[in-house]
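Reviewer 2 asked us to include a model.

Predict the structure of this chain.
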Amino acid sequence: MNSKIIFFVLAVAIGGISAREEVPKNPPQISAVSEPTPEPVNGKTQTFDRALQTAAKSYQERLAQAASELTRMRQRIGEEKGPLLKQMRAAQDRLLAAESETNRLGTRREDNGELRRKLLLELDAIRKTSSYAGTLVHDAVKTVGDSLSPGEEQQIGDEISNLRERLDSSDLAVRNAALSDSVDFLFINTDRCLGGYRATGKAMINESHDVVSGTFAFVGPETFFHPDNGSKSGVVRSREGAKYPTNYSIAAWQLQDAERFFSGQAGSIAADSSNGKALRLSETTGTLFAHIKKGGWVAFAIVVVGGLAATLILLKIRDLRRMGVDDAIKVAGFLKLVTDGSWTEAEKAARALKRSTRELFETGLLYRDQPSAILEERLQAVLLEQRLNSERRLPLLAVIATAAPLMGLLGTVVGMVKTFALITVFGTGNAGKLSSGISEVLVSTELGLAVAIPTLVAHGFLAHRIQRNLSVLERYALQFTTAIQTANSGETISKRTTG
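Predicted model (structure tokens):
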């Protein structure tokens, strides 16, 4: 009984293991076979052995059915696996081809990017070169326009203005066309200037200020003009703000030589080595009155003060000459006579001295018999009078020497005010409009210094000479007082001896 039970359990376990190993993950649905219910035999229940045999048979049938189903499934899987493997290989091939195409496109994209960068660099270089060339052409046209010879404005001025306007246009097509036209114009103008050329036009005659027609001859940096009315030919110079250039006739240029030259034949010409600077300099050189007039009313005031200073200097020189002081040798002879008590001879010697010394000593001789204090007071009074006379009008020179630069500074300020007013109206680009204010600034400063410096020097010289003369007179006064005291002492001793 026990052995049967063990056999039954082993059979069930083996069947279950085989079923787990061979049945796929999704096994086909197998209809379950219900275990047969033991049928009664002769009215009695089957025995356990019978039931065990029946069950073993049933499981064997089920195992056989499952094995058959597993075989069919394996066949079906084998049949379906082949096409699936082919499809998978085809998909793998397509994936490899796509990866290869992707790599190829990536490489091509990098090549195209590198090429694009190179093209952009070349385009940027072309743009820079074009911009640089355009700037050169623009500057060249501007230089030609700014350096036109006198009278040449009438010939090519409009063409240059048109080219400059087109070069400054915001339209790229217009600008490019203007660049090409400008290059052609520059070549033509260079070729024309190399050999010189002639053209008709108008100029203003410097002597009569009449505008006449004639022929211009452009020869290198010089421009010559031959009037049609028979006036003298000459050299042409431009004037700022003037519509027509000015013709300066050349007196030494013979009419026959000028006509041959302007007719294209060989002839002599007069060249200005200063390139017009000498003519402009001669025009700026005017009279002294015109120069002072540029400084305005301040300049005239400074001139008046300067005239007053010159008058005072002349007067002080006259006073200085009148205030003559004798030298020490001549005064020593006079003082010896005073010391000896020779009054008659001393008076004669005093009259022979110069004015200042004579006045001092005559006053001393007049009061020689007075006490020493009174004599010294009288001499001091003479010295004070001499000081007043000699230093008269000298402080006014010092005031003028100090005030003249200040007046020049006033003229500078007035001129600068006018200059800034003109700048406000006309701007800083027109130098001709600013010249009047600038001239007033410089002229007034110049005149102020021209008056102050000589006045200051003259004041110093005169003050030094006057002070020196007064010092010498003071010394002579002291010597005279000593001589008088010595003479009086000698007379007293002589009287005592005689008595």
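The radius of gyration is 66 Å. Confidence is low (pLDDT under 50) at residues 16-39, 41-45, 493-499. We have added this to the supplementary material.
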